[in-house]
Amino acid sequence: MDTPNTPPTSTDASAARHSGFLRRCLRMPIGIQSIIAVGLGALIGSFAPPAGEQMKILGDVFLNLVQVVVLPLVFPLIVLGIARMESVKKVGRIAGKAILYFELVTTVILLIAVGLAKFTGIGKGAPVHGADADADADDLDGLSRGIDFHELVLHAVPKNIFAAFGEGNLLGAIVFALLVGVAMAAIGEKSEPFATVLESVAAVMFKVVGYVIRVAPLGVLGFISYDVAHYGFGNLRSLLGFIAVVYAGLAIVVGVLFPLIATLYRIHYVDLLKSIAGLAGIAFVTRSSESVLAPLMGKLEAFGVSRSTTSFVVPLGYSFNTDGSVLYQAAALVFLANAYGADTSLPALLLMVGVLVILSKGMAGVASASIVVLITAGNSIGLPAEGIALLLGVDFIVDMARTGVNVIGNSLAAAVVDSSENRREAKRGARDTAPNPAEPEATALQKEPAQ
User: Other C-beta atoms within 10 Å of 36: how many?
Assistant: First the structure.
């Protein structure tokens, strides 16, 4: 016996509408979802601070998911990229070009930051001895010991690679991958089975990264809720000038300096920005450049940068090419120097730049790296560490921008090094194919005896 079709109830229709709305939300681009998450996080942090602080666990889980996949992906990519270069000499050449580029660009950025901060006079009259600084001073415990370069070298050459992987030691993994890649290139065909395994591992890790990136908006929601609830906006008024100078400096770097470099190397800068814009946005709101390290290399490869260059230069840049961070550090030091009435003459500013040039290359593997470098540089020029506590209340605001710029800067660095290598190969190919004027005459002379 057939049962009559029952008409859908209002409850069923409502459930269907909600289900359809949820599906549409999930199909939105990750960037749109992240923007929505920023708005929701700001509302939760503002109107329900206890709940906002508890939601930090969402951000921590997201970062843990990212960090657990970074080294298993970066290691095989670096090894394969080096093993398939034509020679060990090329590896050294690319490394030399990358480090030279990092050094030159970060030095120029430091000069821009110091000049802009000096011109605007930020920090004069700032309440460095106020209650806010005293309240945040405890956050500096354990950081004021500075950077131990002896420990940094040992960090780069770990005695146990498995322990280095467990600690998330990216610099140590790069050094070990360099050695393995050179060894594979040296033994040739015997390394092919191992190379096949590494290719399979990299493919699986790329798939896992895709899954992780899908939950990025939840991480954004957690971080923004916590930041707004924990820090609030109490220090914004007194530090508004500092924030404005940092953002202006970063805008000059992204809008003027980087396009000039791209033009010099014939790189389509706007197209590069379009290809990585979503990832830079995720790094901006999560305040973690590691969260986009793996997909960034895939985007650059799709943009046209060779895998061998990308897999080597980008991880190296994460340790030695922190463009946004060095600009923030320079502006912060000038701010504190003005606040404490310290010497800000040209020789003193140049000394400040020189100290940051050295210290900024020692940030790899150091927890709270920007703050540690800032404290160490401040001590070296006579600024007390306590003043830096004043900046911690707005650190999350400037941290978002400097992290996004770090991602853009490393992307451009990989494109520049790859463009330089392509130019070199093109010149060498032109020389090899160029006709030799003496060749026809020599050929004729060789044929004469046969005739």
Answer: 15
Question: Is residue 175 classed as helix, strand or coil in its secondary structure?
Answer: helix
> Between residues 213 and 439, which one has the greater pLDDT?
213
Q: Which of 4-18, 104-118, 130-144, 168-182 has the highest mean pLDDT?
A: 104-118
Highest mean pLDDT among 5-14, 148-157, 161-170, 177-186: 177-186
User: CA triplet 328, 322, 87: central angle to 5 degrees?
Assistant: 165
The pLDDT score that the predictor gives to residue 249 is 93
Do 219 and 33 meet the contact criterion of CB atoms below 8 Å apart?
no
**Could you identify the residue written with the tokens 């590896």?**
91
The answer to whether residues 155 and 278 touch, using CB atoms and an 8 Å cutoff, is no
What length does the chain have?
451
Residue 116 predicted with pLDDT over 70: yes
Cβ-proximal residues to 352 (8 Å cutoff; 6+ apart), any chain? 114, 330, 333, 334, 337, 377, 381
No. of helices (H) and no. of strands (E), the chain? 22, 0
Residues 72 and 205 sit within 8 Å (Cβ to Cβ): yes
Rounded to whole angstroms, the Cα distance separating 229 from 429 reads 60
CATH class of the 31-425 domain in this structure: mainly alpha
> With contact defined as beta carbons under 8 Å apart, do 310 and 318 qualify?
no
Prediction pTM value: 0.73
Phi-psi region of 365 (alpha: psi -120 to 50; beta: other; left: phi over 0): left
Res 365: pLDDT: 43
- By the 10 Å C-beta count (0-12 exposed, 13-18 middle, 19+ buried), 448 is classed as exposed
269 vs 372, higher pLDDT:
269
Residue 247: how many other CB atoms lie within 10 Å: 15
Mean pLDDT within 148-153 = 62
Q: Check if the beta carbon of residue 319 is closer than 8 Å to that of residue 174.
A: yes
Asked if 168 and 70 count as a contact pair (C-beta separation under 8 A), the reply is yes
Q: Is-contact 303 271, C-beta < 8 A?
A: yes
Q: Structural domain boundaries of the chain?
A: 31-425
pLDDT at 355 over 80: no
Q: Which of 249, 239, 381 is nearest to 325 (CA)?
A: 249
